Amino acid sequence: MGVIITTAGEKLMARLQAEGKPLVIDTFIFAEIPGQDYEADIDPGMALPAESRIRLRYPIPEEYRAYVNPNQVVYSALLGSDVGDWAFNWQGLYCSEHKTLVAVATFPAIEKRAYSADTGQPGNNLTRNFILEFNGAQKLTRINVSADVWQLDFTVRLAGMDERERLSNYDLYGQGYFDGGGWKLVKQGGGYAFLPGLAYVGGIRAALVSALPVPALSKKPCDVWLSVCLKPQGSDRVAEATPLWVDPGASVADVRDDAGIMHYRVRVACVDASGNVTDVRPPEFGDADQPGYIETYLKNNRRYTTCATAAATVAKTAALPGFILKPGAWAVVRFSNTNTAAGATLNIGGTGAKPIQYHGKALTAGTPGAGRAYAFIYTGSAYELVGDVLTLAEGGGLSFDAKGHLYVDFSLVPDDQMRAIVLSMMQQGGGLNVDGKGKLYVDFASMPTDRFESMLQSIRVPIWLTGTTQVYVAPDGVDSAADGRGFSTAKPWATLQYALNYMATNYNLGSYVLYVNVAAGEYGTARSESVQPIVLPAFTNISGTVVIRGAGMDQTVLHGYFVNRNASTNTYHIRDLTIKQDTTSTSLYLYCITLEYEATVQCQRVHFIFDPAEGRTNHEVIRTIQGRLVLGLYNNASNLESACKVTVIPAGCAALFSANGGQLIIQTVVTIDGTCTASLGVLYANGLGRANMRCISGADTQGKISQGNGQISGRRAAAHYNSIIRLPPGNIEDIIAGSETSVTSTGGQIS
C-alpha cells in the first residue's frame, strides 16, 4: 500500500499557511484504477482519475475529522450496507474549496457490496481512515475534535503492550544485561568511546550500531551510568540511551520525568582520577537468584546423553559433564541396550546411582528399550521417567522383536482369550467378515444403523439427515445420548440446550428440517441470580432449518434468554412458547433474545416476558446486533396467526425492540402488556441498524407494536448513526405504542 501527499497538496498547504487560512479537506474520493500496481511508488503529480473510474464522492462530516496529535489529523468514511455494488483500489482526500487533490492512497482492490432485499444478498459495512502527517497539521486544518472521541484509542493499549514486553525482558535479563562488548566504555585517542553492541536496561533493548565517541571528561573521578527510556516519536516509541556522569559511589535511581516517561539506570563504568576505566557492567545473565539466570542455565547445560550399560546390569551409567543433581534436574538419555534387569538404577554425570521409577514404581525388565531416548526428572530420591511407556503384561500376546518392534504373537494368547477375540470380531452384525481368500475385511453394509452411526459419532463425522427429523424435550427427560434417547416422546431429553448441542455436533441437516419439540412445562430456574442463556449453535447444512416448537404460548415456558454466539448463517424458527427473563441478576444489560452474529431467527406466537431485577434501565428486550430477527412469518401475507406478545414488568428499559447494527423485521401484531418507560425508544435503531415494519394485507393486518394492558411511555421510534426505520403507511401513533415524538440523528432515517 502506498500513501503520499500530492505536489498540488503541498503547494496548497504552503500557500494557506503563509496566508493564515485553514485547509478544509471535505471529500473522500473512491475509485477503481485498472492494472494499478499498489506496491509501486505513487506519482506526486497525480491528478484525479477519470470520472468513469470514480465510484463514490463521500462528503466527510465534521465529526469524522479529528486530530491524533498536533502533527497528525485523521479523516474517516463510514460506508454502510446501502452503498454498492462496486470495487475500489484508490482513495483520495480532496479540498472542494480549492479544487485540489491533497493526498492519495493505493491498495489491493476491495469489494463494496450493498444489501438487496430482492435477492437476499448481504451487504458489508466498511470504515476507511486516512491519516495525514505534517508539521502543524492540526493548526492548519483547525480540527479541534480528538480522535479518541469517535475512534478506538489505541494509545493505552499500545503502551500496555510496550510495558508487558519490558517486564518480560526484565524477567529474563534483570536490571542490566550487556552482550559481549556492548556499551563498554574504553579509552580512545584523547577521549573515550562506548563500544557497539546490545544492552537491556530495565527491560528496554538499547542497541548501539557503531562506536559512540565521548569527549574528554572534565570530571574525574566519576561513575558512569547508562539511562534508557522509551521516548515518543511520532505515533511510535523508540529506545533512547543517555550516559550519565555522577560522583563516585553515588546511587542513581530510576526516575519518571515531567512527561511521565520512565528512565531506567544501571552503572557501567568507573573512571579514576587518572582517567583509567574500570568496566563494572553487570555480568552476562547474573546469578541463580537474579532474573536472567535461566538463560545461562539452559545455555551451559546440555541435557542429552547416552547409556551403553549392558542389558542385564542393574546400575546404568551415563556421562554428562557439569550435570548438577538436585530436585527438578532433568536429562534425556538414549539407551543402546534394552534393560533386562529388575530394579534398575541410573547414575548421570557421576552424581550417584538413583532408582529409576515410572508412575512411582520401579521399572520392570523390557524398559528402557534399545535405541530409544527417555526423559528423566530427579525427584530428590529417584529418577522419574516422564511420558508414556508401553509395558507388556505376561500372556497378553504382545512382544518385542530383536529390533525393538512391537508385534502381536497370537501363540502367546491363552486359548479362552483368543476364542473370545475371534468371536467378538465375527459376531453377527459386528461389521467384520471374511472373503473367499480368508482375508478379514469391514463390511459396513452388514453393520446395524445404530452401530454405524455410533461409529461415525465416535470419530466426529456428522450424520446426514435423510428427511424431516423430530426430536423431543420434556421436563421428565434425561440429557443422555444412550439408548436412542431424544428421538421419541417416550425417551425425551431434559433441556433444549442439550438437544440443540447434540444435534449440531452429530448431524448435518442437509436440505431438511429439524423439529425440536419442547413439551409443556417450565424449564430452567425462575428468579435466578445466574441466568443460563439458550445458545443457538451453528449447524452444518445446505439449506436445512431448525424449528424450536413448544406446546403453545404460555404452556412451554423457558426461563433465561435466547442468544447466538457463533458466526453461523443458519435459519431458526421459534414457535408456540414463552421465553421468560426473570432474573435477580443486576447485570447492566439484559435481553429476552439477542442476535450477536449473522443468522436468521423467525418468531411466531412467542411470548417474551421481561422481569429482571430492579435498578437497571439499560435493557433491550428484543435486540439484534448482526443477522436478521423476524417477528411473524417472513415474506408471508397472512401473519395474524403468528402474532407475538411482550410483557414488561420493570419500570424502565432502554428499548423494547432494538436493531443495533442488525435487521429487525416486524410483520405481525406485537402486543405489549405492562407499565414501562422506554428511554431510548420503543423501537430503536442504531449503528447502521435496519428496522422494517412491513405492511401485510390491509390496514388492520400490518406490522404493529400495540399497547395492551398497562402503559408504555417514551419515544415511539428513534434512528441514529445511519440506521433506517421503515414503517407502513399511516400515522405512527397507530403503528407504534409510546408517548413521545420520534427522533433521528447522525444520518438516521424514519420513512
Structure description:
This protein has 751 residues and is mainly beta. It folds into 4 domains: 2-151, no CATH class; 156-295, no CATH class; 301-391, no CATH class; 524-750. Helix content is 11%, strand content 40%. It has a 22-stranded parallel sheet that branches. Strands 20, 21, 22, 23, 24, 25, 26 and 27 form an 8-stranded mixed sheet that branches. Strands 1-7-6-2-3 form a 5-stranded antiparallel sheet. Strand 4 (65-69) and strand 5 form a beta hairpin. The chain is flat, with a radius of gyration of 37 Å. Mean pLDDT is 84; it is low at 284-301.
Taking the sheet with the most strands, its summary is: 22 strands, parallel
Number of helices: 8
Assign the structural class, choosing from mainly alpha, mainly beta, alpha/beta, alpha+beta, or little secondary structure.
mainly beta
Distance linking N and C termini: 41 Å
Radius of gyration: 37 Å
Q: Work out the count of structural domains.
A: 4
Number of strands: 55
User: What proportion of the residues form beta strands (DSSP E)?
Assistant: 35-45%
Low-confidence stretches: 284-301
Sum up the overall morphology in one term. flat
Helix content estimate: 10-25%
